[in-house]
Amino acid sequence: MEKDDRVVIVAVGKDKPGLIAGVTSIISELNGNIEDMDQVVLQEVFIMSLIVRFLNLETKEKIERLMDMLNREGEKLGLKVHVYPLSRL
């Protein structure tokens, strides 16, 4: 049986076009399903939070790959990205 795991992804940075597309493209590439999403811009500061479900994300290596890919994309976009497995909150 496949295991479902959910993570909370939080991204913060200076607002500019393409931020949502950049983060969600990584989620799509890894076959993630966005279950909930919120974003706001406060005085030019972009803040986005997502709850994403991935199949078979139970291994440490898979979680590290997700975090690495999101952090690399975040660096390109000027975002700080954090990933929190829901099971650990």
Description:
By secondary structure, the protein is an alpha+beta fold. It has one domain: ACT domain (Alpha-Beta Plaits), CATH 3.30.70. Helices cover 33% and strands 44% of the residues. The chain has a four-stranded antiparallel sheet, covered by helices on one side. A hairpin with a 2-residue loop joins strand 2 (33-42) and strand 3 (45-55). Helix 1 packs antiparallel against helix 2. The longest helix is centred in the last third of the chain and has 18 residues, at 60-77. The protein is globular, with a radius of gyration of 13 Å. The two termini are 24 Å apart. The mean pLDDT is 90.
Derived from helix and strand composition plus strand pairing, the structural class reads alpha+beta
Q: Please name the CATH topology.
A: Alpha-Beta Plaits
Please give the number of β-strands: 4
From the 3D coordinates, which CATH architecture would you assign? 2-Layer Sandwich
CATH secondary-structure class: Alpha Beta
Q: Mean of residue pLDDT?
A: 90
CATH superfamily: ACT domain
Largest sheet: 4 strands, antiparallel
Total count of helical runs of at least 4 residues: 2
Given the C-alpha coordinates, what overall shape results?
globular
How many domains, in number, for the residues? 1
- Radius of gyration in whole Å, from Cα? 13 Å
Proportion of residues in extended strands: 35-45%
* DSSP helix fraction: 25-40%
